[in-house]
Design goal:
Helix content is 33%, strand content 23%. The protein has 386 residues and is an alpha/beta fold. Strands 16, 17, 18, 19, 20, 21 and 22 form a 7-stranded mixed beta sheet that branches. A 6-stranded mixed beta sheet has the order 1-6-7-8-9-10.
Length: 386
């Protein structure tokens, strides 16, 4: 169903029951772990394994895809356990097969498979090396820190298929369908986002290739409109916004700050702005981070708590800083019944980030909106929209 061609077949699995990825990212639509089989006229290769609990299904899928052939190679583009956990099981099934990977990945193998003797079963490849399968050839390119240091990608030259490792992946089981952009952005921003320079380096390499198909390790195989996906990766890795718009992110206790945030969002919409308002205490931080990557402006609205910003706001800003977001226009709204300091605290965190521009004067609310604070919100809205 997900095969690329008669010679390049899909052998991955869907995990529809998993609720969290890497113990921190919600999976409302599960996750896929992709694996592929390339069958050339003289040799065949498996590309990557799957998560540990899906070993039986994966081996069955490989057996079907191989159609009785003995695989010569198991290519490990990425050593992360959700892609490598069943390598030893495959070696037991096909003892003549060699593991192919870059030097850094091969050095990591014993860390995940203590006590396993890999002597004589490893084949190191480096930038530009080729595995010749007969009428199909796999050429390798290093992609360090996209998003681990050992990552490589492989380009199948006869059908122009890029096996892109974690690049161009997205959250969500393939069989459940769904769009690409939002869940790919959430995946990129939270997992790869810190490494924009390294993604740029990979994109420069890919620009020298004619790629017709992108086959990632998570999410659907991309067979059309590749310029769209490459264009989004170009923007995300440069920390450029996809579009003009405002993320209004708020953290409230008794509703006063929420009311101010929603009033501001309404003012911005009335002026024609695209606006998304999110309650940081009720929205997963990975979604908020994704929206911060999407839009060119933010307004941060936080109540004061314990002489600081609200913890959910602190967590959000910490994630933005750790993922390297930069180049955004930011408005600030604080609330405090007796000693509001949230704006000063938020500003301090923003100052530790690159190229974040605070727009206008912070708006201060005393418990609930007043005529004065409404006027200040209107002024901030006009400045954010300018």
């Amino acid at each position: 169903m997900y095969d690329i061609s008669d010679a390049i077949r899909y052998a991955g699995v869907d995990d529809t029951g998993r609720k969290m990825f890497e113990s921190q990212y919600p999976l409302p639509s599960g996750m896929s772990y992709n694996s592929y089989v390339v069958s050339g006229s003289t040799h065949s290769a498996i590309l990557d394994s799957v998560d540990a609990e899906y070993g039986d299904e994966w081996l069955d899928n490989l057996t079907a895809a191989l159609e009785g052939r003995q695989p010569d190679y198991l290519v490990m583009l990425h050593a992360e356990p959700d892609h490598s956990s069943n390598i030893v099981r495959a070696l037991v099934r096909w003892p003549g097969m060699k593991i192919v990977a870059g030097k850094a990945a091969l050095q990591m193998l014993p860390q995940f498979f203590s006590g396993v003797d890999f002597a004589g079963r490893l084949m190191e490849v480096k930038e530009g090396d080729v595995i010749d399968l007969g009428d199909h050839r796999l050429r390798f390119y290093a992609a360090p820190m996209v998003h681990w240091p050992e990552v490589m990608v492989a380009f199948e030259e006869s059908e122009s298929v890029l096996f892109s490792a974690d690049a161009f992946g997205r959250f969500g089981a393939v069989g459940l369908g769904g769009g690409w952009d939002d869940e790919a952005r959430r995946y990129y921003a939270n997992i790869v986002g810190k490494y924009g320079n390294q993604v740029q380096a990979l994109l420069r390499k890919l620009s020298q290739l004619t790629v017709d198909v992108i086959a990632p390790l998570h999410g659907p195989v991309l067979k059309s409109d590749l310029g769209h996906y490459l264009g989004l990766y170009e923007k995300w890795s440069r920390y450029e916004a996809e579009r003009r718009g405002v993320l209004v992110a708020y953290a409230s206790v008794y509703g006063g700050t929420a009311a101010a945030a929603l009033a501001l969002a309404g003012m911005l919409r009335a002026s024609g702005c695209e606006v998304v308002a999110v309650d940081l205490a009720a929205t997963d931080v990975s979604e908020a981070v994704s929206l911060a990557f999407k839009y060119d402006s933010m307004v941060l609205c936080s109540v004061t708590l314990d002489a600081d910003m609200f913890p959910a706001m602190h967590r959000f800003l910490h994630h933005l800083q750790s993922k390297g977001l930069r180049g955004r226009r930011v408005g600030l709204v604080e609330n405090g019944s007796w000693a509001p300091v949230a704006a000063r605290k938020m500003s301090a965190m923003l100052s530790a980030m690159n190229d974040m521009t605070v727009v206008g004067e912070p708006v201060t609310i005393r418990s609930r909106l007043s005529d004065d604070s409404l006027r200040a919100l209107r002024e901030l809205a006009s400045q954010i929209d300018s």
